[in-house]
Amino acid sequence: MQRWDRIEAFVEVVRQGSFSAAARELRVSASHVSRLVGQLESRLDTQLLYRTTRRIRLTDAGRLYYQHCQPLFEGFREAESALDDFQARPKGTLSLTCATTFGERYIAPLVNDFQCRHPQLEVHMHFTNRQVDLIDEGFDVAIRMGSLKDSSLIARRLCERREYVVGSRDYFEQAARPHSLAELAAHNCLVGSRDSWLFSVGGQRREVRVSGRWQANSGPALLDAARKGLGLAQLPDYYVMADLRSGKLVAVLEQYQFADTAVWAVYPRHRHLSAKVRQFVDFLAAHLPDARLTR
């Protein structure tokens, strides 16, 4: 332990630029700091600092030693700060964004549950199907779905998500069920905000361009059109599972279902993740799968 005290005294002298300033930071006397540094130099059998009445200066050996020691004490400070943050209660404002339908149905109730546990926290929710820029637009967290693009953001997987190609029984009385992706060309495909559907062929991602006589940038509108037999639609599980269970809709091409389309919490990279973000993301990861099964 004495060795760490000596190294800490040396690092603090270099950081603060003087023995007296280091002593104030360490809450000991300047003579004690000077003695610790002297003991360190004796143990290493080398001079680390040039001392004058006005200033201190690193020797070449001291500069090398400082370069190796300084990150250690920064790490200690980071560890203490992280622990303090871990034990802290969420506070301030939590700003988050999510796609509209998924956010309203699943995320908002969990956000409300989280705030009931932490009434001191202020929450701002923004639902939009546009992919926002978290840093430029000032959001702490985004809930995103599907395959993520590479970025500098941190992403945590919250739960699974599956896309289904579905049609109504009425529709399949008029058109044969497709068994290959090529057969989609013969169907009236209900087009959403993108005119391509995502599949997996031989373990590889494949996008298939689709077309039809109907298009809308709304999931609920797509679902209603599929229920009424207007064509095939590709929709996430949270839209269609109830209809698949009841038999209102029928899934096709399940052998080509793309697997890697999870729900993610995405947030900017920080050395210390704030308590509000860390605890909120933990809460979502613990409760979102159950929420999607029961709501």
Report on this model:
By secondary structure, the protein is an alpha+beta fold. It has 3 domains: 2-87, Arc Repressor Mutant, subunit A; 93-160 and 262-294, D-Maltodextrin-Binding Protein, domain 2, CATH 3.40.190.10; 163-256, D-Maltodextrin-Binding Protein, domain 2, CATH 3.40.190.10. The protein contains 10 helices and 12 strands. The strands form 4 sheets. It has a 5-stranded mixed beta sheet, covered by helices on one side. It has a 3-stranded antiparallel beta sheet with strand order 10-7-11. α5 links the parallel β3 (93-98) and β4. α1 crosses α2 (19-26), α1 (2-16) crosses α4 (60-87) and α5 (100-117) packs across α10.
What's a quick, concise take on this entry?
With 295 residues, this protein is α+β, with helices and mostly antiparallel strands.
Write the layout of secondary structure elements.
Layout: H1 2-16, H2 19-26, H3 30-44, E1 49-51, E2 56-58, H4 60-87, E3 93-98, H5 100-117, E4 122-127, H6 134-137, E5 141-145, E6 154-159, E7 163-168, H7 169-174, E8 196-201, E9 204-209, H8 219-227, E10 233-236, H9 237-246, E11 249-252, E12 263-267, H10 275-294
Parallel strand pairs: 3-4, 3-5
Antiparallel strand pairs: 1-2, 5-12, 6-12, 7-10, 7-11, 8-9
- The CATH architecture of the largest domain: 3-Layer(aba) Sandwich
Protein structure class: alpha+beta
CATH class of the largest domain: Alpha Beta
Strands across the major sheet, in which order? Answer: 4-3-5-12-6
Q: What fraction strand?
A: 15-25%
Helix content: 40-55%
Number of helices: 10
What is the CATH superfamily of the largest domain?
Periplasmic binding protein-like II
- The biggest beta sheet, please? 5 strands, mixed
Strand/helix succession? HHHEEHEHEHEEEHEEHEHEEH
Could you tell me the radius of gyration in angstroms? 29 Å
CATH topology of the largest domain: D-Maltodextrin-Binding Protein, domain 2
Instruction: Estimate the global geometry from the Cα principal axes.
Output: elongated
The average pLDDT score comes to 88
How many domains in all?
A: 3
Total beta strand runs: 12
Ends distance: 56 Å
